[in-house]
Automatic annotation (TrEMBL):
Alphabetized Gene3D superfamilies for the sequence: Homeodomain-like
GO molecular function annotations of the record: DNA-binding transcription factor activity; sequence-specific DNA binding
Keywords associated with the record: DNA-binding, Transcription, Transcription regulation
InterPro entries: Homeodomain-like_sf, HTH_AraC
Organism: Lentisphaera araneosa HTCC2155
PANTHER family: ARAC-FAMILY TRANSCRIPTIONAL REGULATOR, REGULATORY PROTEIN POCR
Protein name: HTH araC/xylS-type domain-containing protein
Pfam families listed in its UniProt record: HTH_18
Domain HTH araC/xylS-type as annotated: residue spans: 122-220
Length: 225
């Protein structure tokens, strides 16, 4: 079996899929999982189905240990560098093998390492990054980490991260801007992946932070291309 592949037809049990472009729906373990740029999916079930949602996609699939635990955001590795390694430049097979191995090592965490190597603020910020599509609030974060509000607010202040919700909004804006500029996802899908209930609230939020609407950003990108 190949240690890595960029052809979605090669996807099989034990592969860690990193989506670099487009949208997919993975159907396994009795549920449909929509996946967009930057998402990971570890295929553990023998029976699964993959459906392409967008007109085109690019994926990297690495043979992995199905018992391992993985960080949920591939952005940690810089998707641009992964894309460049496997799609933009001619590289030797040996180089690509080592690159795939490095990516897997960076993404793999043991259960012990997850708890011991990450400080509480690192765990919280990672949790926020991994759940930007969900309803995040101070109350939700406090409940997740069994903290009181005062402790959570102090943690962010002591680590120069500003207020909790300003930090959340900043990450949502960065993710939205990146997707608008670098993906072909629809504005409505980007809005949902960044935690907004509809396009109107997303557009209002984005225009407040960028002085431009999401559609203006997309039009400017298309014009430059």
């Amino acid at each position: 079996m190949k240690s890595f592949s960029t052809d979605i037809k090669d996807l099989s049990t034990g592969h860690l899929l990193i989506l670099l472009e487009g949208e997919l729906v993975i159907m396994c373990e009795g549920e449909n999982r929509a996946r967009s740029v930057g998402d990971l999916e570890l295929i553990k079930e023998n029976q699964f189905e993959c459906k392409q949602v967008s007109e085109s996609h690019k994926v990297l699939m690495i043979q992995a240990n199905s018992d391992a635990l993985y960080i949920e955001e591939a952005d940690e590795l810089s998707l641009a560098l992964i894309y460049e390694d496997f799609f933009l430049q001619q590289k030797s097979q040996s180089y690509l093998e080592k690159s795939a191995q490095y990516i897997l090592e960076r993404l793999t965490l043991s259960s012990d390492q997850t708890q011991s190597s990450l400080s509480i603020i690192e765990q919280i910020t990672q949790y926020i990054q991994n759940n930007l599509d969900d309803k995040l609030s101070i109350e939700v974060i406090c409940e997740e980490f069994e903290l009181n509000k005062t402790k959570l607010i102090k943690l962010f202040k002591d680590n120069d991260l500003g207020s909790v919700m300003t930090y959340v909004k900043s990450l949502r804006f960065q993710k939205a801007k990146s997707l608008l500029e670098n993906s072909e996802q629809s504005i409505s899908l980007i809005a949902a992946s960044c935690g907004f209930v509809d396009c109107a609230s997303f557009s209002h939020f984005f225009k407040k932070h960028a002085d431009k609407s999401p559609s203006q950003i997309r039009k400017e990108r298309d014009w430059l291309m």
